[in-house]
Amino acid sequence: DLTETIDVLYCAAHWHWHLSRLISEFPSPVSMDFCRVEMGPDFRRRLVDPDRNLAKDGVLDITVGTTPQAYCMKIKNGTPHDLYPYLFHFDVKSLNIIEYDTRGIEPLVPSIPRGSEFTIGYGPTCSLPFEFEAQHSEAIEHGFFKLFLTTERVDFSLTTTSPF
Fold this sequence. Notes:
Layout: H1 2-20, E1 30-39, E2 45-47, E3 55-56, E4 59-60, E5 69-77, E6 84-91, E7 97-100, E8 117-120, E9 130-132, E10 143-150
Antiparallel strand pairs: 1-2, 1-5, 3-4, 5-8, 5-9, 6-7, 6-10
């Protein structure tokens, strides 16, 4: 069907454009760590190994099984600016773009004040962790996280649903 083909091509073009749009590198005083979390005996999430960043050179390469594993992200702001983070996940298979809630506790206040850190998936933000698990017998799953940082609130409106 021609209409379905056009929908798929439009979605693929939208997905690719937003994934590959040029952004500047993080300023050196900004860092992003990816860590594993688990539920503690007090029903609070805690870091499994807080000093271990699972992302190496901007790449997160993890092996998961059929039991979901939970992960979190920690963004450290060493700049002299208050920052608003916007985090998106680009799913290669479905062409979905999913925005994660990074508004923090007070939506109108910058989520990452200068000299502080912001967590996604544990801590005071109460956001849910990222969960990854192998679907069926698939050996490899690919996706991309893209983090935008601004000094004022912005509406990116990138989210899409799969054309499949």
